[in-house]
Structure formats: structure tokens, C-alpha cells
Amino acid sequence: MAVGRSAATKIDWTRITSSLGLKGSTATSLQAFKKRNDDVRRKLALLQSQPTSVDFSKYRSTLNNTAVVDEIQGHFSRFRPATYDVGRQLKAIEAFEGQAVKSAEETKGRVDEEVRALEKTLGNIETARPFDELTVDEVAAAQPEIDKRTEQLVSKGRWQVPGYKEKFGDLSVL
């Protein structure tokens, strides 16, 4: 038990959360577990600091009915604290740990995928030619819907894009 106690006191909760990059429900669950752990530690420390011995001779000298004190002393001497099988709690902790690791791995996978996509996009941005060097044909090849929309507007006899003047102003004055 002493080994478990010394190991449990050395847990760096913030480092666990930051090094594994835990977010969302996993981080919330870990924080709830840490809170329960801290509460139990506080309660255990409080109970361990309280005296556990009873001075029955003082009660015998104070009370007239010593039979009551003898009966209580008999119950006290026969009392054995209940032992609990903590296996169930340990299994629950292991299941939580397994789920937390699984969730962390899934999160890591999603983040790695997003980083790869962003790196690809950044590479495209860095290698792209400046906008003013592009030709109309190159823009139409990259975005065919622009060419289709232009053909549609011209076929209907519309030579101006709806909303252009409102957004950019009338350049006919120039």
C-alpha cells in the first residue's frame, strides 16, 4: 500500500493532460477522476489524524452505570473493520484508462490527419503563382464552375455579376 501511495502522490496531472494532448470528454473525465482522488486523499488524511483509542477507564470513573461501559468496551474490542474487495474499482479504473488511451489515440489520429492536410494546403499556397500572374484560362481550369456561371449569365444577356456594384462600387466613373 505504501508503494501505491508514494506513486499516487507523484502523479503530475497537468503533464498527463498536456503531454497526451487530451481534450473534450477525455480531459473532463480525467479532471473528475483527479477531483475524486483528491477528495478521498483529504478524507483519508483527516481520518488518519484523528485518535483511534478510547479511554474506557475515564468513562467508568465518570458514569455510575459501568455495565454500559463494559458492554461498549466489549463491542469495541470485537469490532473489526470491514474489508473491501477493491478489485471492482481497479477494474473500473483500468477500463477508464483503456478508454482514455483509446480516445487519446483517436484524437491523435484525427489531429495528425488534419496536420497533414494543412501542410499540404500550406505547400500549395507557398508554391502557387501570384494571382496577378494567372490567366483567365488557368482560373477557369482550376474552378470550372466560374466558366459555367459566366456562360450562363452571358446566355441570358447579363453582362454584370449581380451584387458587384453594391459590393465594389461603380467603376464606370473612372
Question: What does this molecule look like?
Answer:
Helices cover 73% and strands 0% of the residues. It starts with a helix and ends in a 6-residue tail after the last helix. Helix 4 packs antiparallel against helix 5 and helix 7 crosses helix 8. It is mainly alpha-helical and 174 residues long. The chain is built from 9 helices and no strands. The mean pLDDT is 83.
Task: Please summarize what this structure is.
Helices cover 73% and strands 0% of the residues. It is mainly α and 174 residues long.
Nearest-integer average pLDDT: 83
Q: Which structural class best describes the helix and strand composition?
A: mainly alpha
- Shape descriptor: rod-shaped
Helix content: over 70%
Quote the beta fraction: under 5%
Helix count equals 9
Residue windows where pLDDT falls under 50 for at least 5 positions: none
Query: Biggest sheet, in brief?
Result: none
Rg over C-alpha atoms, rounded to the nearest angstrom: 37 Å
Strand runs, count: 0
What's the topology here?
Elements: H1 2-9, H2 13-20, H3 24-49, H4 56-62, H5 66-78, H6 87-127, H7 136-142, H8 144-155, H9 164-168
Features:
174 residues, mainly alpha, 73% helix
